[in-house]
Amino acid sequence: MELIDGKKIADAIKQEIAAEVAQMVAAGGKKPHLAAVLVGHDGGSETYVAHKVKACEQCGFNSTVVRFEDNVTEEELLATIEKLNNDTDIDGFIVQLPLPKHIDEQKIIEAIDYRKDVDGFHPVNVGRMSIGLPCFVSATPQGIMELLKRYEINTKGADCVVLGRSNIVGKPVASLMMQKAMPGDATVTVCHSRTKDIKEYCRRADIIIAALGSPGFVTEDMVKDGVVIIDVGTTRVPSKETKSGFRLKGDVDFEHVAPKCSYITPVPGGVGPMTIVSLMKNTLLAAQHKIYK
Length: 293
Hints:
Rossmann fold; 6-stranded parallel sheet
């Protein structure tokens, strides 16, 4: 069993990005600039945005955080998005999800200029990704593909099971794994809450990408020997052993499943760091106008 070290790969990519940014600046160009819109004080969102700001510093980017209280109106948020769309100094920006229930998330996503949509959630980017055209690929699926690539895991013809059908991870990663590319060229099955006998699908799988948000869902009896597992789950569970009072737990029962795997990502330290660095890569591409001229 080999542990897929997302932190190590992410650190290497950040160094690659920083070197590229240094060259851009030395040639008279501007630093890439990423903005994040944060509504409310959700602990997970606060932590995630703080990691993004730190990653911007490490990559040589400028960063801006625009904060609103939970009671912000949809109109105020849309006005801010319009301002960011028209700000020539901002190369890319994200609106941190989830949003309060009185705000229509899809409406907010569609208001973002797809050329600055470094989260890759806008329908234009999702549509272009689905048919293999250049686009901003959403950060977590892109991070997963990068891990498979850098660990030289052969996906060609592999039986891949994706657990979860969210627009953020499940659907896009299934689409990427099907495409004629490397990584890719896999035979993909998407399982979800209405799938009958998920265990049977998982037992046949060469690769399992678990993105359910259900701690410990994948157990030892659900996987075959030699399986590759990418665990996207990051659920906070109570813990007396940590200062924060909680710890992150993945969708896979790591202790019992890991011995059967050829490769597996840990939680934390697997997919999480790759999500952040993928956002940095998208922002760099936006600054370089490599996707949309």
